[in-house]
Prior knowledge:
Layout: E1 5-7, E2 10-12, E3 18-23, H1 26-29, E4 34-39, E5 46-51, E6 57-59, E7 67-72, E8 77-82, E9 91-97, E10 100-101, E11 105-109
Amino acid sequence: xxxxxxxxxxxxxxxxxxxxxxxxxxxxxxxxxxxxxxxxxxxxxxxxxxxxxxxxxxxxxxxxxxxxxxxxxxxxxxxxxxxxxxxxxxxxxxxxxxxxxxxxxxxxxxx
Length: 111
């Protein structure tokens, strides 16, 4: 299996923006719904956003209106645009496609 590769996490100030990306193999990209999860220290992993094969999206209440999940089928890449970031968004973020998980990428929101 070709692993999922996440990119573009980092440190950002409150109110700032980041866009996470998750590169996948073409063989799985069009087959499944795709998800972003996150796990903060001492907390359980939680589902943040989903995009279906048909392009419908769903979000956790805590990120609605601030985060946008999208997919580029030509590039086999999943994205998570995160705006108006808050300290409570600090977590390791994971992409999830089918049975595969990304390696996780740290997002820290702090002044």
